[in-house]
Amino acid sequence: MDSKETVLDVLKKEGAPLSAGQIAEKSGLERKDVDKAMKQLKDEGAILSPKRCYWEPKA
Known about the structure:
Largest sheet: 2 strands, antiparallel
Protein name: MarR family transcriptional regulator
Organism: Chlorobium luteolum (strain DSM 273 / BCRC 81028 / 2530)
Number of helices: 3
Number of strands: 2
InterPro entries: WH-like_DNA-bd_sf, WH_DNA-bd_sf
CATH superfamily: Winged helix-like DNA-binding domain superfamily/Winged helix DNA-binding domain
CATH architecture: Orthogonal Bundle
């Protein structure tokens, strides 16, 4: 599983908006890898931000 899939999986399992630091902690990935994956997911429209610095999967 690549980092994008891991990040998306963590967000879906949690069911609440998470910050990048929380995602890194829960997934075991390094923060830089989470940031890179989140940028790609954001550009693809797979995640959205309901409030500043917190992310959730797009419904």
